[in-house]
Every structure is written in structure tokens, then in C-alpha cells.
Amino acid sequence: MPSLPAFRREVVVALFLGVVATAAAEEAVQVTKLRTPKVTLFDCKDGSKKADYAQKDFQAPWPVLAGPSDAGLLTVKVGAEQYCVRAYAVETNKPVAASSDCGALVAANQPRSGATRGVGGVDCKK
Q: What pTM, to 2 d.p., does this model score?
């Protein structure tokens, strides 16, 4: 049986690790909402379209595992699978800076909005 000072040290270490784990969980970036009625899920390795995910089926949050990439994609975990989504198509709990996607059509009949993350930014040439 550990002595009292050793037991205290173990308790302090356990509490410290618990606080660090909680802080890390709070700092994690997560997708909290879909901005469009459906969002395209891409294969992160080859960029191919895997599926469309309907807003009505969305269950928050989706953990963001990486990104945004140079193509403006976030790697997210949906259920047990990993996919990539366009950064401008989702809302996150923390700001995510995405590079400009000059060829994107968002609400095709509407003009592009400065509030649409990564779409038609200053990097695009006319």
C-alpha cells in the first residue's frame, strides 16, 4: 500500500491529467452546423465525392481532425468514418481560416457574400 505522501502525489497527478484532458477537449475544433441543405462528403485521399449529407440528418458535433487544406477542406469524423468537407459549407465552434475557393458556387442565383468563408476572396483574380 502506498504511503500517504505517495498517495497524495498520485491524486495530484490524476487531477492534473483530468484538467489537461478537459482543456484539450474544450479547445478542439468541431463542426456545429451545416450551412447548406446538404453538404458533400469527400474522400480525403483522392478528393472524390463519397456522399451528400443532408442537414436534417446532421447530429452535432463532428470533430475536426485536420485542416483546412490548401483546397479549403476540413477533415472531419462522421460516425466512425473520416471525410473531408468544404470549410465554407459548415460552421465551427472556433474560427477556421480557409483559402479562397474561386470557382465555388454558393446559392448559385445569389451573389457571393463576404460572410461565406473562403469563397471569392481577395486571392481570386477576375
A: 0.59
